[in-house]
Fold this sequence. Notes:
CATH superfamily of the largest domain: Ribonuclease H-like superfamily/Ribonuclease H
Order of helices and strands: HHEEEHHHEEEHEEHHHH
CATH class of the largest domain: Alpha Beta
Mean pLDDT: 91
CATH architecture of the largest domain: 2-Layer Sandwich
Strand order of the largest sheet: 6-5-4-7-8
Radius of gyration: 22 Å
Low-confidence stretches: none
Number of strands: 8
CATH topology of the largest domain: Nucleotidyltransferase, domain 5
Amino acid sequence: MQQENTDFFAWQARFGTEEACLKYLIEERWGNGFICPKCGHEHAHFLPSRSAQQCAGCHHQVSVTAGTLFHSTNLPLTKWFWAIFWIVSDKGGISAVRLSKLLSVSWPTARSMLRKIRTAMGHRDSLYRLSQLVEVDDALVGGKHKGKRGRGAQGKAPVLIGCESRGEKAGFISMASVQSINHETVRDFARRNLEPGSVVRSDALAALNSLADTQQHEARVTPPEKVDEWLPWVHVVISNLKRFLLGTYHGVSSTHLQEYLNEFCYRFNRRQWEAQLPNRLLSLCAMHLPVQNKAENC
């Protein structure tokens, strides 16, 4: 769905107050009319003191943030809305440390906010399947460790990557953090991320042969000097991912890696609509179900 283009000044003017943020959520959630979840009545009155809609029939109250990503938040909505703007306004993203300083919140609170937003990003992209011609490869990401490099290196987290090849450009991408690259994880990746019957290219890694179970799999032994001919776009994506992780976050642990992959894919898949990204993500968060953290800080 297309959204309005926006920039820093437009966002500031539109969402500079709590009242403006509440108005947005009300319009986004009940733009087609209020329906009471308890009695089905179609009229309500807004209660500013409680930030809630009160049914005109049974007087049941529904919080404006209930059932959204902002459910039961202790933070002003203005801080949430600005977090959404900052996370997508720069292709490098934003770290929890930086966000905590910008919003004047604690690091755990900023980390919790980012986790919820990245979870919503991942859920949105999980609705799509890569199709037509798809390049699939694996990569190892993580901090630097002494010893063996490449496959089998210590401290590295394996990731499966799929990228649609559209000739002169890359299409949509999908990424999954996995425990290891084996037939089982590759099958699960294909089931979740690839349209059945798509043409899938890969190198000759044995574990990737299981792609043939559901796809038209084309595997080829790929020397380093030939990799840009056979799998050009997926390797561009892998290179960009590593720069993203090291540049903004200086490396990440495997425990939270999928969150960062969600963020990278969400932004990459919508790079053609960069100026729309804040409004797209805000709309997603307004309609997304609550995301619970182990320790709620926001």
